[in-house]
Specification:
single chain; 101 residues; mainly alpha
Length: 101
């Protein structure tokens, strides 16, 4: 995110030009100023939330713990499900990004 913030500064986005100077405390909380996340920042966040997961280690451990005959049987469905969630996330970001331009 800090690299994307630096990219916005390089682009000349006025919301990010004096980001460090605008920090102050208000009501006990740090007020960093009202800034809007860029499309790239939103895409990065959504990609991390959709999280393409190759090996669902926790699920395999739980299935093994409870005596599953094949605890690793969830790997293929997990890859397919997280792949599609990531594709949907990217498409959503691109559609919303075009509406904002």
């Amino acid at each position: 995110m800090s690299d994307l913030e630096e990219l916005e500064r390089e682009r000349g986005n006025s919301e990010y030009m004096d980001a460090k100077a605008g920090m102050a405390y208000a009501n006990g909380f740090m007020d960093c100023g009202a800034r809007t996340a860029s499309n790239e920042m939103c895409t990065f966040l959504v990609m991390n939330i959709s999280s393409l997961q190759l090996i669902p280690v926790n699920i395999i451990a739980y299935r093994s713990q409870y005596g599953s005959a094949n605890p690793a049987a969830v790997i293929a469905p997990a890859i397919v499900a997280t792949f599609f969630s990531t594709i949907v996330a990217v498409v959503y970001c691109k559609v919303v990004g075009r509406k904002c331009d």
